[in-house]
Write a structure and sequence with these properties.
The protein is α/β, with parallel strands linked by helices. The chain has 2 domains: 32 residues; 99 residues, Elongation Factor Tu (Ef-tu), domain 3. Helices cover 28% and strands 32% of the residues. β2 and β3 form a beta hairpin.
Length: 156
Amino acid sequence: MAQNRLMELVVGLFVCLGVAALFILTLEASTANQIGGGTYQVTAEFNNIGSLTDRAPVTVAGVKVGRVTGISFDPNSYEAKVTMQISDKYDMLPKDTSASILTKGLLGEQYIGLSPGGSPKMLKNGDRIRFTQSALILEHVIGQFLFNKAQQKPGS
């Protein structure tokens, strides 16, 4: 009987440790992609954001410099307004930086890629990125290709 009780206690302790480990792992995973230190906020407007989501990465030359923190619709311009938080470590982005919505792989997640310009003035908190390139929608490209093929004359 005492040996049975000891076995139940050991199994219970093992289960509790497993639950605690899962809890710690969940906390680590949820904070792993956060940007450390201070940040500044910039916005950009796009005609089409495709499947871009909140918390999508913002990169420069493939290096993660921030993340998307908000997506809304502007009823005046009929465009999607994307808000981004950029780490203060990357406060040297020129004011004429351009933003493009890119895709990881052929059908992967979408993210924002920033391409620095040449302006001597730098982006600061609250600025708007004026040069943008919307997401490439694969269905539109295929549809356009098929439409162009249908318009061609046979034999040409």
